[in-house]
Amino acid sequence: MSEPTTSNTNDHKVVTFTNKTDFAFTPDLGCMYDSNPIFGKSGASVEPGESVILPFHIGNLLAKNLAKRAMMVAAPVDAAGIPTGEPVWSEDSLAAKQASYIVDMYEEEKGTKKSETELLMEKVEEYKALVDKVVPKSEREEAEKDKETTDETPEQPNEKTPGVYQDKADVLAELEKRGIVHDKRKGKTELEKLLVN
Question: What share of the chain is helix, strand, coil (3-state, %, to 5)?
Answer without folding.
Answer: 45, 15, 45
